[in-house]
Amino acid sequence: MRRATAELIVKDPGKFAHHDRVFLNNPVVMQGMGLAPLVVLATSGQNAVMLAAAVALLLVPSRVLACLLSRLVPLYDEDPAPETLQKKLLPRALVYGFSTAVVYLAVYPILNMLFGTSLLSLGIYLPMLTVEPLLTYRFGRVQETVRKAVSKGLRITVGYALLLVLLGCIREWLAAGTVFGMAVSRPVLPMAGMPAGGFIVLGVLCAVWRALAAKRRAYLTKEAGNLVDVHSQKEADREG
Amino acid sequence: MDESLIREQEAQLQKTGRYYKHICFMAVPVLCMACFLYGVRPLLLCGIAVLTGNLCDRLVSLLRRRVYQAGDFSNESFALVIALLMPVTVDIYVLIIAVLAGVLIGKEIFGGYGSYPFNPAAVGYVVAAVSWPEQVFRYPQPYTSIPLWDASMVPVSSTIEDTLRSGGMLNIRSLVLSLGEYAAPMGTGAALVILACGLFLWTQKDAHMSASVSFLLTCALIAFFFPRQAGLADSAVLANILPRLQCVRDELLTGAILFSAVFLLNEPYTCVHHRMGRILYGVLVGVVSMGFRYYGVYETGVCFALLVVNSVSAWIDRTEAKLYRLTHLQADAGKGAAQ
Predict the structure, then answer these.
(1) Which of A113, A217, B60, B75 is close enough to B53 for a disulfide, judged by CB 3.0 to 4.6 Å?
(2) Contact A191 B130 (CB under 8 A)
(3) Which of A190, A194, A204 has the CB atom closest to B132's CB atom?
(4) Distance (Å, whole) CA B44 – CA B149
(5) Maximum C-alpha span of chain B
(6) Digit-coded pLDDT (tens) for B302-329
(7) A206 inside 8 A of chain B by CB
(8) Which residues from chain A sit within 8 angstroms of residue B105, using beta carbons?
């Protein structure tokens, strides 16, 4: 661990965890975003990969486009008055929704080329990604820079795709006893292939994930504290 | 685990622990009847279910770092109810998964003893029913020789449900239906034994007449006035009383309706607590159960109905309490004004 990182963790552990969109602050596990595609569609590894590809192609470009366009309707303040916020929110929401829809028009042929007719199995949930909070929730937040939009978009994409593929593989194994079509065992719980089972499996996965994240966070805080102490001791010795 | 939560659960166990113990006791006569009809396999299945439930309790105690409560029979009672709702030919693996789902997903995930909004036994049964309908909804004939371990070769059928669903009437004598001598889940057929168990639970104040009777009455009224048997629904009520009564008999004695009224409906933490609310609860479960039976895919719609109505049972309780306060406040205000 670098010293700067350790100091950041010691100074504000919450802020450090907030920036980690892959494990410590995964958008699905911690904020419950993007649940519909996860629960309904991520029934197999292949479906999960298709969805992950769709999100990867959609999220960053749409976020950047929306970030640029939303400057037309800026929020100005970090903490605007409720009336001002209400007036700004609708056009900003439309800007974010339309940006994602425009990017989707460009992304669909690419997905079609990659996955062919298998893409049809995603049904209405693929176009519905354009209004998915995972992609559009920034509309009510403070104005972000393009750099931040790209960096956050990439981290969220990785975190979401990781959970998608993990959940898809687990559900496929539970429901059909296979992983990416390869037989692993007998079907453990066929219900996992249904939306009801999806909720249950996702709930259990989130519980385990949160427990592991809490453990990791405690470990990092402890390690960072130790590292900062060592560095302080060294500096004190040097000065002495 | 939080100390206050542990103390709260121990207090709850003192209050309602008796119910689960009595359910376990009352499963014994039903199990005996099942053994009489199907041989030793029901005993094996119930034993495995109880063992699974007990091991889950010990495992959860270990994970939550709390002392295992030997007097808590809730897991065992849920496991027994799930086992008795299954056909005797069910795969042992399916039964274990059903008990695990009921106990871990239905109970422990929500916080353990007394914290669950949905009946854990119904949760376990529904998970198995949705996952393996071909195993859960097909039953062997009584007095068939059933191997102890692998019962997959035993002939099974769903004649009763097929007959009722296709608008036919059951050509089975009432005594045969009452004794459970027809293809049914292993613990739900013997109506007379279940009624006796219900009577015991009622005398011990474990079962509430208001919920069970309103549930059975609602099912009976729906079956009487809106029978699904061909030709009866369109005919005059008075002209066809006897066939309609036979419909009522068929609907109440099959599909685990009576079993659910005794063993599932009165679960202390998912049933409504006030009397009027319990009547409404029973009526709602009855209406939804018959809806599932008439229009649903699965025969034992009552378990699905229970889960649906469990989602509003706390709301029924709160609404009744509010109404009670409101009417009593008005009455008090009226008295004050008169004085």
Answers:
(1) B75
(2) yes
(3) A190
(4) 9
(5) 79
(6) 999 999 999 999 999 999 888 888 888 7
(7) no
(8) 200
Chain A residues in contact with B109 (beta carbon < 8 A): 203-204, 207
Q: Please, where are the H alpha helices in chain B?
A: 3-38, 41-63, 74-85, 92-100, 120-131, 133-136, 159-165, 174-179, 191-203, 209-225, 241-253, 257-263, 275-295, 301-338
At residue B84, what is the residue type? L
CATH code linked to domain B3-152+168-338:
1.10.3430
Task: Tell me if B255 sits within 8 A of B161, measured CB to CB.
Answer: yes
d(Cα A145, Cα B326) in Å, to the nearest integer? 56
Three-state DSSP class for B156? coil
pLDDT at B207: 86
Global pTM?
0.86
- As given in the structure block, the two tokens for residue B148 are 């102890």
Q: How far is B165 from chain A (nearest CA, A)?
A: 25
- Taking the domains of chain B in order of start, what are their residue ranges? 3-152+168-338
Say how many C-beta atoms besides its own lie within 10 A of residue B111's C-beta.
13
CA distance A133 to chain B (A): 27
- The two most distant CA atoms of chain A are separated, in Å, by 72
Provide the angle, in degrees to the nearest 10, between the axes of the packed helices B41-63 and B3-38. 170
For residue A140, the model assigns a pLDDT of 66
The answer to whether B135 touches B96, Cβ cutoff 8 Å, is: no
Pick the residue of B127, B131, B134, B304 with the most A CBs within 10 A to test the interface with A by mutation: B131
ipTM score of complex: 0.79
To the nearest whole Å, the CA of A219 is away from the closest chain B CA by: 21
Average pLDDT over residues B60-68: 87
- Cβ(B24)–Cβ(B62) below 8 Å: no
> How distant is the alpha carbon of residue A38 from its chain centre?
12
Cα separation, A2 vs A228, in Å, equals: 10
Distance CA B77, CA B106 (A): 13
One digit per residue, the tens of pLDDT, for chain A of length 240 reads 778 888 888 888 777 877 888 888 888 898 888 888 899 999 999 999 999 999 999 999 998 998 888 888 776 665 667 777 777 788 888 888 899 999 999 999 999 999 999 999 888 889 998 888 887 776 666 677 889 889 988 999 999 999 999 999 999 999 999 999 999 998 999 999 999 999 999 999 999 999 999 999 899 889 988 888 888 888 888 887
Whole-number Å distance between alpha carbons of A6 and A28: 26
Report the 10 Å Cβ neighbour count for A135: 26
Residue with the bigger pLDDT between B100 and B67: it is B100
Dihedral angle, C-alpha A137, A140, A146, A147, nearest 10 °: -70
- Check whether B1 has a pLDDT greater than 60: no
Token representation of residue A122: 């995603």
